[in-house]
């Protein structure tokens, strides 16, 4: 088995200035060679599929699946950015329309959300391409870290991976050199479209790892490589709704994530990486289905409580519905944007607070109300 795996190891090539850059084996056509489908891997494919089936079923009983997806996209954007060191909270991301925090980390997450939405929408009409990846990259890095990151362009200079601030000489890994990046991305694109008969989940694992190895952009490769997973799985209709996001799993197992990517490069150990990825799909899908169920039950229980205990307040259900869509919102905005006079809003919220449904916090922009338990379910893993 080891001999088979070694077939998939790339080579290091000495560059004109003396350093060694890694060039992977091409994937197209039919790579990686000779994957070993042992019992563990076969079981994991089946478990991951079953978990996805459960997640699919849950979206059918959600009253507003698009809202749930929108939250999940935001959460994924945050988690994927957190893996790369972005520091902000889901509260800030959810409140972004209120211009309370136009700080850089939040702007990065907002870019990510836009990039994801653009990608998902584009793929409904046009096929996946390098050009689309570049357009998405442009949005991902727009206005964030300046020109030297070349938004929308493949790298022009050698990049490297390693501890923050390390030099090329100290790098843990030096990916594909810039002069052949386009060629290798062409190969990745062909592989994406090839009908390889592989289960799409395995293909997604392979594409992500290969993309990280090429590291085609000067920055943003981690985030874009994770978007690539979503794009493939949505395009192949693995799920009815775009609800499978792996960043929480990658964040919680970050060192294993990095190590297994390195093992693919250095040992050709695709199987180890694919198994890890499938475990991620299985666990994340079960978690997402569980979260959806918890949210459905909570909303049902709180609506019942509102009907039973505060029926005199005619706006109570309307305001509760707004809070479900905006679980962090300033009291002023709630009143203005939804045309409910301030005293009514305040009175209703006070009733909600008394019953533990909401709590208040103070921001520079004024009083902010949070749908406490609902928000804490959504936030799991982001703090
Ligand atoms: N030590 C490592 N070993 C293997 N892969 C790594 C390592 N460090 C980082 N990576 C990969 O590189 C990505 C970060 O690349 P980068 O271009 O900086 O992306 P971003 O700008 O989204 O942070 C990580 O998410 C991971 O996929
Ligand atoms: Mg980075």
Write the SSE topology.
Blueprint: H1 2-6, E1 11-14, E2 20-23, H2 39-61, H3 65-83, H4 90-94, H5 104-125, H6 130-140, H7 181-193, H8 200-214, H9 221-235, H10 247-252, H11 254-267, H12 270-309, H13 316-325, E3 328-330, H14 331-337, H15 342-354, E4 358-363, E5 366-371, H16 372-379
Antiparallel strand pairs: 1-2, 3-5, 4-5
The chain binds adenosine-5'-diphosphate (ADP) and magnesium ion.
| Biggest sheet features | 3 strands, antiparallel
User: For the record, what is the CATH homologous superfamily label of the largest domain?
Assistant: Fido-like domain
Radius of gyration: 23 Å
Give me the CATH fold name of the largest domain: Fic-like fold
The poorly predicted ranges are 1-5
Helicity range: 55-70%
The side-by-side strand order for the widest beta sheet comes to 3-5-4
Shape: elongated
Bound molecules: adenosine-5'-diphosphate, magnesium ion
Please count the helical segments.
Answer: 16
Which series of helices and strands comes N to C?
Answer: HEEHHHHHHHHHHHHEHHEEH
Q: For this structure, what is the CATH class of the largest domain? A: Mainly Alpha
First-to-last CA distance? 41 Å
Structure write-up:
This protein has two domains: 289 residues, Orthogonal Bundle (Fic-like fold), CATH 1.10.3290.10; 70 residues, Arc Repressor Mutant, subunit A. Helices cover 59% and strands 6% of the residues. A hairpin with a 2-residue loop joins β4 and β5. α12 runs antiparallel to α16. The N terminus is likely disordered. The chain binds adenosine-5'-diphosphate and magnesium ion (MG). Adenosine-5'-diphosphate (ADP) binds next to α9 and α11.
């Amino acid at each position: 088995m080891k001999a088979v795996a070694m077939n998939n190891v790339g080579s290091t090539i000495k560059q004109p200035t003396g350093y060694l850059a890694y060039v992977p084996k091409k994937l197209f056509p039919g790579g990686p060679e000779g994957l070993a489908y042992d019992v563990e891997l076969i079981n994991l494919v089946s478990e991951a599929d079953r978990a996805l089936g459960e997640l699919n079923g849950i979206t059918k009983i959600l009253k507003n699946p698009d809202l749930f997806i929108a939250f999940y996209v935001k959460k994924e954007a945050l988690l994927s950015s957190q893996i790369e060191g972005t520091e902000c909270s889901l509260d800030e991301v959810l409140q972004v329309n209120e211009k309370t925090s136009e700080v850089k980390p939040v702007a990065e997450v907002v870019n990510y959300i836009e990039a994801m939405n653009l990608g998902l929408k584009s793929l409904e009409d046009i096929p996946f391409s390098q050009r689309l990846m570049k357009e998405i990259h442009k949005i991902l890095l727009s206005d964030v870290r300046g020109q030297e990151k070349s938004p929308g362009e493949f790298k022009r200079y050698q990049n490297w991976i390693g501890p923050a601030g390390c030099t090329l000489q100290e790098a843990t890994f030096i990916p594909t050199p810039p002069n052949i990046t386009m060629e290798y991305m062409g190969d990745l694109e062909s592989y994406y479209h090839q009908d390889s008969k592989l289960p799409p989940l395995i293909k997604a694992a392979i594409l992500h790892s290969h993309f990280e190895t090429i590291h085609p952009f000067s920055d943003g490769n981690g985030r874009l490589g994770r978007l690539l997973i979503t794009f493939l799985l949505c395009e192949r209709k693995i799920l009815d709704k775009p609800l499978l996001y792996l960043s929480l799993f990658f964040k919680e197992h970050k060192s294993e994530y990095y190590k297994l990517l390195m093992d693919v490069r250095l040992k050709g150990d695709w199987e180890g990486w694919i198994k890890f990825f499938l475990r991620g799909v299985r666990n994340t899908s079960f978690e997402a289905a569980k979260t959806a169920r918890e949210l459905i039950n909570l909303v049902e229980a709180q609506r019942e409580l509102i009907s039973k205990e505060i029926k005199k307040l005619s706006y109570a259900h309307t305001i509760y519905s707004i809070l479900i869509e905006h679980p962090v919102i300033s009291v002023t905005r709630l009143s203005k944007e939804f045309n409910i006079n301030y005293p009514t809003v305040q009175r209703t919220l006070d009733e909600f607070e008394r019953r533990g449904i909401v709590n208040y916090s103070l921001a520079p922009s004024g009083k902010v109300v949070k749908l406490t338990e609902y928000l804490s379910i959504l936030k799991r893993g982001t703090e």
